[in-house]
Specification:
The complex is a heterodimer of chains A (460) and B (329). Chain A is an all-alpha fold and 460 residues long. Chain A has 20 helices and no strands. With 329 residues, chain B is of the alpha/beta class. Classes of the chains: A mainly alpha (460), B alpha/beta (329).
């Protein structure tokens, strides 16, 4: 026990007990705040994070932040009120510290009017003598409870888990900024009176695209219509700045179109296997140009340039690809001619659909896996090489695969003669398909397409 | 009266009684507390432990009248309360009330369980109302008035256990334990030597007024509401048949037939006040309550057959109750 000083010794026992009760109340308040602060901070951080990456709308962010703050404050108040020490409890603590034999408890709790005044005064003076033995700051210092450390630890773990799980779902994060970009571009174009109608179209489109009820296919149609308008206008426009603006709008729309196609592709993949999804994804790998974006957007541009390069290689590099080419690859080459006006998305659509008459939906990256009859066994989805389907081989969905042994024989100069029954068929050195493949690099190791064993007999 | 005066007198009384009685300090103190609280005491112990001597010494140091009643099966109520006898004075015959031993300030009811229930019940009204009624006429008892009853726990043949109603009227039930070897040696020294100890009078012959003031002072001792709540919860926890089942602990439900009456709570509070005053304090602490819980409640809780069969005592159950009921609500 320690001797208290100056101001403390002048206060009455009841005041000392009241001061201790207030101090303990503050301790409990701090305890509650420290317990609920880390989760609240983490939740706020997550909300800001989601807001920054536009996973949630501003209004949702504000509502969420407000709700979290409200819940946190409510939890603090409820917990503090529940644990708040009463005056008798504080008095008992003083009694224990000073060995006052419940003098402070009696003084703090009795109704003075009901008891003899002389007795109460005497008890007060007795208790005052015990006040010298206690200093509240030293006897009742605030100590951080273990619950805070647990709360901090769990909050840290939650934040870490969130960060680990975010990249898994990161592919959808760029959708909203593209809409914002479109709105911004529309606002820029609107400043030029001749283009105000087009600006209105763009802003209307941006609003419509944010409607979650709108199907991906409808989005694609809308985007494509506006894109055509923009391109038409771009051709007619002579002013340089307007052309630049229209070009920006065009690239933004292309990016949106790409995103929409990816969304549709994902929906299709859910019902489809993984066998055909990869080529179609590669076919849709054409992204917009000149639009700001994250890493994945850069990857998309890189894939797109690869595709374009492959198309050129397929068209211009017969020496590189060998002398043997089938008719199918030639047909593809015709479709893969690069457009001088940089209409890479159209190229992509043609690559995807082969020689099928290109409707608008097919050109917009409609997945081939959509057309595969899901009810039939996997082996029946493919026509045998050389066999014509209902619409001819060229229209059918197939992948020409060079088996490892054939590839080896081909390398030794025996290619094409491995199967006497199919002498007319010529195998290329590189696998050829009607799906866009990465560009051929002469020095790079040859890409091998894995063939499921169950398909080997069918293809041979 | 000042609390210091109370403490001074109380300590002198204790000291004088201790000159005669070796050991049993708690018993002496609690008898005195019960006396100043206006209660009656039941002393239980085997013969030869100085129960009767204690009572005699107490009456002597208090300077009040003392009567002893040896309870036997053939003892009649009139032998206790008194009766009207036909007297002749100046040629006239008339009935005159002859007071019994109950009219003394300190009454020793020795081996009270040997008398018949009819005789025992004669003491009931005297203990509670502090008056007796004979032939339709009430007679007030002396003040202060205390009944100190003794009973022998080993001789059960030919005894009549006190009914619960009568037990409840005793403020404290004190267990007189055998002396320790050191105490026994001191007893031998005092009783077999040439000189025997003798208690002196503490209060004058007209000490009744002072005793009354001390009894009044005891009731003015401060007690905090949380301590009163604690007593209430303790007494409440001894009830095995509560409607809502709250409060009662599992040993209580298992071994008790009836819990303490409100008189138990009154006895605890008054006993704690007396203990506080005896210690020179004018307020009750939890320690005061703890010291009087057992003597105040042990005869007020009624064991069931299972407890009797398993030889479970009321003190064991009270210990469990005290352990399970927290001081802070």
């Amino acid at each position: 026990m320690r001797t208290s000083t100056g101001a403390q010794s002048r206060e009455s026992p009841e005041q000392r007990v009241g001061r201790l009760a207030a101090r303990l109340r503050n301790h409990k308040l701090w305890d509650s705040l420290l317990i609920f602060l880390p989760p609240l901070l983490v939740a706020t951080y997550l909300a800001v994070y989601l807001y920054n990456f536009a996973w949630i709308a501003p209004m949702t962010f504000y509502l969420l932040s407000g709700a979290m703050l409200g819940v946190g404050l409510l939890a603090v108040v409820v917990r503090t009120r529940r644990l708040i020490p009463s005056v008798p409890v504080a008095a008992r603590l003083v009694d224990e510290k000073t060995a006052a034999k419940d003098r402070f408890l009696t003084l703090a709790t009795i109704d003075v009017a009901l008891w003899p005044g002389a007795f109460v005064e005497r008890l007060r003076s007795e208790a005052a003598a015990f006040l010298e033995r206690i200093d509240l700051r030293q006897e009742f210092p605030y100590r951080i409870k273990r619950s805070f450390y647990w709360s901090f630890l769990f909050s840290l773990i939650a934040a870490t888990l969130f960060h680990l799980s975010v990249p898994l779902t990161g592919s959808t994060r760029h959708q909203a900024p593209a809409y914002d970009t479109l709105s911004e571009v529309a606002a820029k174009i609107a400043k030029r009176p001749p283009l105000s109608a087009l600006a209105h179209e763009l802003s209307t489109l941006a609003m419509k695209l944010q409607d979650p009820k709108l199907a991906e296919q409808e989005k694609q149609t809308l985007i494509h219509k506006v894109l055509e308008q923009v391109e038409t206008r771009q051709r007619k426009e002579h002013e340089k700045e307007s052309r630049a603006l229209l070009s920006e709008a065009s690239s933004t729309l292309q990016g949106l179109e790409q995103q929409s196609a990816q969304g549709q592709q994902k929906d299709t993949e859910k019902g489809d296997g993984g066998a055909q999804s990869k080529p179609s994804q590669q076919g849709q790998g054409e992204g917009k140009q000149g639009q700001d974006g994250g890493d994945s957007r850069g990857e998309l541009n890189a894939e797109r340039s690869k595709d374009r390069q492959q198309g050129q290689n397929t068209q211009n590099g017969p020496q590189e690809q060998g002398k043997e080419k089938n008719q199918q690859s030639q047909g593809d080459r015709k479709d893969n001619k690069p457009d001088p006006s940089n209409k890479s998305d159209k190229d992509t659509g043609k690559e995807l659909t082969g020689k099928t008459p290109g409707g608008a939906q097919e050109r917009l990256g409609r997945s081939r896996s959509e057309e595969i009859p899901q009810s039939t066994p996997p082996a029946e989805r493919f026509y045998k090489p050389g066999e014509e389907g209902k619409e001819g081989v060229k229209g059918a969905r197939y992948v020409t695969v060079q088996l490892p042994e054939e590839l080896a024989a081909d390398t030794k100069g025996e290619g094409g003669s491995s199967k006497p029954s199919k002498e007319t068929r010529v195998f290329p050195k590189t696998p050829v398909s009607n799906a866009p493949l990465p560009a051929h690099v002469p020095e790079a190791p040859m890409e091998k397409q894995q063939l499921p064993l169950e398909y080997r007999g069918i293809i041979r | 009266m000042e609390p210091e005066k109370f403490q001074q007198v109380f300590r002198r009384l204790e000291a004088e009684v201790r000159k005669v009685i070796v050991g049993h300090d708690d018993v002496i103190r609690q008898v005195l507390i019960a006396f100043f609280a206006g209660g009656h005491v039941l002393l239980e112990g085997v013969p030869g432990l100085g129960k009767t001597l204690l009572v005699k010494s107490l009456s002597h140091v208090l300077g009040v009248s003392f009567k002893r009643i040896q309870f036997t099966p053939d003892l009649m109520p009139s032998d206790i309360v008194g009766t009207e006898v036909l007297t002749e004075a100046n040629g006239r015959r008339e009935f005159q009330f002859k007071k019994g031993p109950i009219f003394a300030h300190v009454v020793l009811a020795d081996e009270i369980n040997r008398a018949t229930p009819k005789t025992q019940s004669a003491v009931l009204e005297a203990m509670e109302e502090k008056q007796v009624t004979v032939f339709g006429e009430s007679h007030a008892l002396a003040s202060p008035f205390i009944v100190l009853a003794t009973q022998n726990p080993i001789e059960l043949e030919g005894t009549y256990p006190l009914p619960e109603a009568q037990l409840d009227r005793f403020f404290f039930k004190l267990m007189v334990a055998p002396p320790s070897p050191v105490e026994l040696r001191e007893i031998l020294k005092r009783t077999t030597g040439a000189e025997t100890g003798d208690a002196g009078k503490v209060l004058p012959d007209d000490g009744g007024k002072l005793i009354g003031q001390m009894q009044q002072l005891l009731r003015q001792v401060l007690i905090a509401p949380p301590i009163e709540d604690y007593v209430v919860r303790i007494v409440h926890a001894t009830q095995p048949n509560l409607m809502n089942g709250n409060g009662a602990t599992s040993p209580v439900k298992q071994y008790l037939r009836f819990g303490s009456s409100p008189r138990g709570a009154q006895a605890v509070i008054l006993g704690a006040k007396g203990n506080a005053l005896a210690d020179g304090r004018i307020h009750v602490s939890y320690e005061d309550v703890a010291k009087v819980i057992y003597p105040a409640l042990r005869h007020r809780i009624i064991l069931n057959f299972q407890a009797e069969a398993e030889n479970v005592s009321t003190d064991e159950i009270l210990a469990e109750v005290v352990k399970q009921v927290p001081r802070a609500a």
